[in-house]
Amino acid sequence: MTPELKKETDRKLDLYRERNKSVIKGQILFTGSSLMEMFPIEDFIKEIGSEYVIYNRGVGGYKTEDLEAALDVCVFELSPARIFINIGTNDLSDPDISISTMIENYDRILTKIKEQLPKVELYLMAYYPVNYDAAPDEVKPGLLIRTNEKINEANREVEKLALKHGARYIDVNDNLKDNAGNLKSEYTIEGIHIKREGYLAILDDVMKYLKE
Known about the structure:
Layout: H1 3-20, E1 28-32, H2 34-37, H3 41-47, E2 54-58, H4 64-69, H5 71-74, E3 82-86, H6 89-92, H7 99-116, E4 121-125, H8 140-143, H9 148-165, E5 168-170, H10 196-210
Parallel strand pairs: 1-2, 1-3, 3-4, 4-5
């Protein structure tokens, strides 16, 4: 993590610490990295008039090791009843981090959560696809590392991890994918991150799990 990004993530944690002072405990939490932080689930819930209380504690730039170090702020201070997690995509973009190392980190995260919140319901979200062709030239090299093939392999491992921890593995990607299995070009900002329209496309699937 660059010094600039570290400064930004620390600022975000300070903001979350302040917000956590007024949360209603025992509600629903979404946490992870930028793909979770950018999911405007709190706004969507208000717009549709849903009764669910949802908090988003995603932090852009986070890898699994970063979330593990920030569990107090991003999870425990909220004492949620249900947690939706999407963490690890930045690990997949790092050629020095293997999928097995990422899963080991993720495993520790889930173990710590279950120790602190034994009754919590966990939902491990499948990683979203990417679109190499929709990416600008400066992003393309990273998508030679974080390929859809690698993402699919990682998703298989996350599914196993969910089984190990008695969690739900959920895949809400169907509406995001084109016929080739890539992230639809009209839904992506730069081949990786997702526009509001893309998140709206998966909202119905997410709502199915919220209603469980």
